[in-house]
């Protein structure tokens, strides 16, 4: 058998002497990863392994290398012309691979000619043992998709240059999958990156470029100096987006969701989504009516419409976006996932996301990497996103060289998820069209992200009031002399006899006439859109806070559901402590022991599911719960299998989805916001591992959650669970920064609640989805209270109660004896209760405020009005004085208290103001606690 193996080696032409080191390197790669070498080499090396496997004695790696060497020496000695040609044939194969890997570094991508293009040694003939003398020599081209078996070296090089080094620079060889790499090779090489387009296609390109340029010129003339963040220099973006939408329709998608920052946004809104120019002009002139609290500038606005494609009607949605650039990316992903779930689409075929980036932001903003990392995870994947980078080659005033990034391309971050990258010169419209088609086909075939790097320029400054030559004099000296892409392409079409100057002018005049009339300029816009493509928000409009909804639930049904979700499949091996949790929950259902937090929360989800609402719960540790209270996902100790009881309840139509998220707060919370603003019928919850982890998502909280309704009219029922409480564990993870949420509270924009009993969280969660109002809910959820012996409820409390904004004094304190009133919120209540009991102070009443915003002044007044003999009122909190609820709430407290007894003032009891949220030493924590509790009780 070993002789057959050696004979097979000898019959292989690619083992000639000049290439033995190359073959050895390939073999080393093959041993590390089969996928890292081409299919031809993989088949060859597989045959070596298979051949040796049939012998009694294995052939070692060293033996194979030695045989490579010996065989090469034999062939070298023979010195035939045939062997020399075979050696060069291997060099040609190496050259082809080099073009596939590094051809993009030689491509002509920059319309300005400023991009530094270093010499690439791998693309030189000499690097592969070839020379100009070989240009007329015929070589085999089986590994190329040029349509013929042999070609001269010159023909091969010309074809490779046209394919990989012209207006398109393709990066795909970093992808591990050989199938995907071969797909790109076939698509690019079969047409040498330059497909022949017919007149109709070219005139369609002409029309899109004409519209893009004409709108910018029109706005510039009509509103000189007004900020619009124009698309001049990057007009090719419009044909890209248009083509992606048309291709999505051909793939029978029903929706496309677009996210982008301000650059070119107005152009996309008008020329892609069909926003009426009359509305846009009103926004420029400041006469547009928005009917919102604050509204927002025109280049942050969203929009939606329906357009017709060859595959049918497609709904388009442009996401609203603040000036935080890339933060819209995960918001779009969340919206897309919600739409796909509505359609029961698990693969991403029905809804496609398009995200348009700036070059500086794509390489500079960390949320880009976070969003890319989402793309293939269970909780967040959407079947692939087409990313388009409007690469102006300058960020605000920061040039590419030295300052903008550390990588060659702004797109290099996308390689973290093996996304293919198609760099394209924006001044070659037909190349732009080709990469658009390629990107859409890849996305739908492989369900993965892909990046189009539209290398262009910014004809004006960052905004139309800037003078860019002050910071980029050389760049803008070139730009001033450069004709627009539309001017260049229209001249090309005139030369090709597809049109003439008179027709060009007619197209421009007809377009501008529509602008003057204030009409929509999109020819494919659907006047009577299919409403089945929309989410219905009608039931959630026009509601106030005063409608709580009925959160009671039949007690026997609660007991039945509890028994259902406390059962596991036969033979499922629970961990010992988890089994005790489940056994205790059965006892709670049977009223043998009191209800705790985890059981009440789980019953809330079960009842929500039973009443026809889906539940989506995500966060870094939500399956178990950071503090081991939830155990919504159970794990078999023998097999590792996961079982989620709430997914197996009887008589439920909607789903319970729970995912442990990857280690991100910013992108994950933005995703859940996008999901919640799209699907009002699903209970969407994000839980922070610790409450202060929300710091990492502060942009989402500031720019979307607390202000989205008043800026853009976007309703949102998202719930945030933020563990909060001072347990002596140090500055980190004590505070969820309650004060920040209260500072952001205005115009009844959000709910901020601090529930202290299991019944309260049961009814609070149910209220959030049962009542039709959709506003974000921020919950300061507990840690130690999850197992506190006093923080318990009864099954009757769950079945027949409601959420109490204020909980009055619960013990038998005679109202006429009360002279001191302590108001508080959260876990500090239990410290106060314990101290009062120990001191026997019957003149003190303690009232809990469970909803801090919107502040329940009437409820608080009703809870304290019975105390006619009050002399002192104290607000007690465990947070330092400059944190917590004190500064944002004291005027509300005062209003309620003086409404009862005018002369009363509200005093503060708590920790002194502090730069850090909490003490770092347990002894100091205990000392502070004792001091301010004593101050609250005794004055």
UniProtKB/TrEMBL annotation:
Xref: SMART domains: Transket_pyr
GO function terms (MF aspect): oxoglutarate dehydrogenase (succinyl-transferring) activity
Coiled-coil zones: none
Enzyme Commission number: 1.2.4.2
InterPro entries in the cross-refs: 2-oxogl_dehyd_N (IPR032106), 2oxoglutarate_DH_E1 (IPR011603), DH_E1 (IPR001017), KGD_C_sf (IPR042179), ODO-1/KGD_C (IPR031717), THDP-binding (IPR029061), Transketolase-like_Pyr-bd (IPR005475)
Cofactor(s) recorded in Swiss-Prot or TrEMBL: thiamine diphosphate
Keywords of the record: Oxidoreductase, Thiamine pyrophosphate
CDD domains (alphabetical): TPP_E1_OGDC_like (cd02016)
NCBIfam families: 2oxo_dh_E1 (TIGR00239), PRK09404.1 (NF006914), PRK12270.1 (NF008907)
Protein task: E1 component of the 2-oxoglutarate dehydrogenase (OGDH) complex which catalyzes the decarboxylation of 2-oxoglutarate, the first step in the conversion of 2-oxoglutarate to succinyl-CoA and CO(2).
Name of this chain's protein: oxoglutarate dehydrogenase (succinyl-transferring)
Species name: Aliikangiella maris
């Amino acid at each position: 058998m070993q002789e057959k193996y050696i004979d097979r080696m000898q019959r292989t032409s690619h083992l000639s002497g000049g290439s033995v080191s190359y073959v050895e390197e390939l073999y080393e790669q093959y041993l590390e990863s089969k996928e890292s070498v081409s299919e031809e080499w993989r088949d060859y090396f597989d045959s070596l392994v298979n051949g040796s496997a049939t012998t009694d004695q294995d052939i070692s790696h060293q033996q194979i290398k030695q045989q490579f060497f010996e065989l090469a020496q034999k062939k070298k000695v023979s010195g035939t012309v045939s062997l020399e040609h075979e050696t060069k044939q291997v060099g040609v194969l190496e050259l082809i691979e080099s073009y596939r890997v590094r051809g993009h570094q030689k491509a002509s991508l920059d319309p300005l000619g400023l991009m530094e293009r270093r010499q690439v040694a791998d693309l030189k003939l000499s690097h592969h043992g070839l020379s100009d003398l070989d240009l007329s020599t015929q070589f085999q081209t089986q590994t190329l998709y040029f349509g013929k078996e042999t070609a001269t070296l010159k023909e091969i090089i010309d074809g490779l240059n046209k394919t990989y080094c012209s207006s398109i620079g393709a990066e795909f060889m970093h992808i591990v999958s050989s199938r995907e790499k071969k797909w790109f090779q076939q698509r690019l090489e079969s047409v040498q990156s330059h497909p022949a387009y017919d007149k109709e296609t070219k005139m369609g390109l002409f029309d899109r470029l004409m519209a893009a340029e004409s709108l910018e010129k029109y706005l510039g003339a009509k509103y000189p100096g007004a900020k619009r963040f124009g698309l001049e220099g990057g007009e090719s973006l419009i044909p890209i987006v248009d083509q992606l939408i048309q291709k999505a329709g051909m793939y029978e998608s029903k929706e496309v969701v677009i996210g982008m920052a301000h650059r070119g946004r107005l152009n996309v809104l008008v020329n892609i989504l069909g926003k009426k120019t009359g509305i846009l002009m009103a926004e420029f002139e400041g006469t547009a009516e928005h009917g919102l609290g604050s509204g927002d500038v025109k280049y942050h606005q969203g929009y939606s419409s329906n357009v017709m494609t060859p595959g049918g009607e497609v709904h388009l949605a442009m996401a609203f976006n603040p000036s935080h650039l890339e933060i819209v990316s995960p918001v779009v992903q969340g919206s897309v996932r919600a739409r796909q779930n509505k359609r029961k689409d698990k693969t991403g075929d029905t809804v496609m996301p398009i995200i348009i980036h700036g070059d500086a932001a794509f390489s500079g903003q960390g949320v880009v990497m976070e969003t890319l990392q989402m793309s293939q995870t269970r909780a967040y994947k959407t079947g692939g996103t087409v990313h388009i980078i409007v690469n102006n080659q300058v960020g605000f005033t920061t040039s590419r060289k030295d300052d903008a990034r550390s990588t060659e391309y702004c797109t290099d971050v996308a390689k973290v998820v093996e996304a293919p990258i198609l760099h394209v010169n924006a001044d070659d419209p037909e190349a732009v069209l080709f990469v658009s088609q390629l990107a859409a086909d890849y996305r739908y075939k492989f369900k993965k992200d892909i990046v189009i790097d539209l290398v262009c320029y910014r004809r004006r400054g960052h905004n139309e009031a800037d003078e860019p030559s002050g910071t980029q004099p050389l760049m803008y000296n070139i730009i001033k002399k450069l004709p627009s892409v539309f001017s260049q392409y229209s001249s090309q079409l005139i030369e090709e006899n597809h049109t003439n100057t008179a027709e060009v002018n007619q197209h421009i005049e007809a377009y501008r006439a529509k602008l003057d009339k204030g009409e929509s300029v999109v020819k494919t816009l659907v006047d009577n859109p299919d409403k089945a493509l929309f989410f219905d928000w009608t039931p959630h409009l026009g509601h106030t806070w005063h409608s709580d909804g009925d959160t009671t639930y039949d007690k026997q049904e609660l007991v039945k559901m509890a028994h259902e979700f406390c059962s596991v499949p036969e033979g499922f091996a629970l961990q010992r402590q988890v089994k005790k949790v489940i056994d205790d929950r059965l006892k709670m259902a049977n009223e043998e022991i009191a209800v705790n937090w985890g059981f009440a929360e789980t019953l809330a989800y079960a009842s929500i599911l039973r009443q026809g609402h889906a539940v989506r719960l995500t966060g870094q540790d939500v399956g178990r719960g950071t503090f081991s209270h939830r155990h919504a996902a159970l794990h078999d100790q023998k097999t590792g299998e996961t079982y989620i009881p709430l997914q197996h309840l009887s008589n439920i139509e909607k789903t319970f989805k729970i995912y442990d998220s990857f280690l991100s707060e910013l992108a994950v919370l933005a995703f859940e916001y996008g999901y919640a603003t799209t699907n009002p019928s699903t209970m969407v919850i994000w839980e922070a591992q610790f409450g202060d982890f929300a710091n990492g998502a502060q942009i989402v909280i500031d720019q979307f959650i607390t202000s989205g309704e008043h800026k853009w009219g976007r309703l949102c029922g998202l719930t945030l669970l933020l563990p909060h409480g001072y347990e002596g564990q140090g500055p980190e993870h004590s505070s969820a920064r309650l004060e920040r949420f209260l500072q952001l509270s205005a115009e009844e924009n959000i709910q901020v609640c601090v529930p202290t009993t299991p019944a309260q969280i049961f009814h609070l969660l149910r209220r959030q989805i049962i009542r039709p109002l959709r506003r974000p809910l921020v919950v300061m959820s507990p840690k130690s209270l999850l197992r506190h012996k006093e923080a318990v409820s009864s099954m009757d409390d769950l079945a027949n109660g409601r959420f109490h904004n204020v909980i009055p004094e619960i013990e038998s304190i005679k109202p006429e004896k009360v002279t001191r009133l302590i108001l508080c919120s959260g876990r500090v209540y239990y410290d106060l209760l314990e101290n009062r009991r120990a001191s026997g102070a019957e003149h003190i009443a303690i009232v809990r405020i469970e909803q801090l915003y919107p502040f329940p002044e009437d409820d608080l007044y009703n809870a304290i009005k019975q105390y006619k003999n009050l002399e002192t009122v104290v607000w007690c909190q465990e947070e330092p004085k400059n944190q917590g609820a004190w500064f944002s709430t004291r005027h509300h407290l005062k209003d309620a208290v003086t409404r009862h007894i005018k002369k009363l003032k509200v005093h503060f009891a708590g920790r002194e103001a502090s730069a850090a949220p909490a003490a770092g030493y347990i002894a100091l924590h205990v000392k502070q606690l004792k001091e301010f509790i004593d101050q609250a009780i005794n004055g």
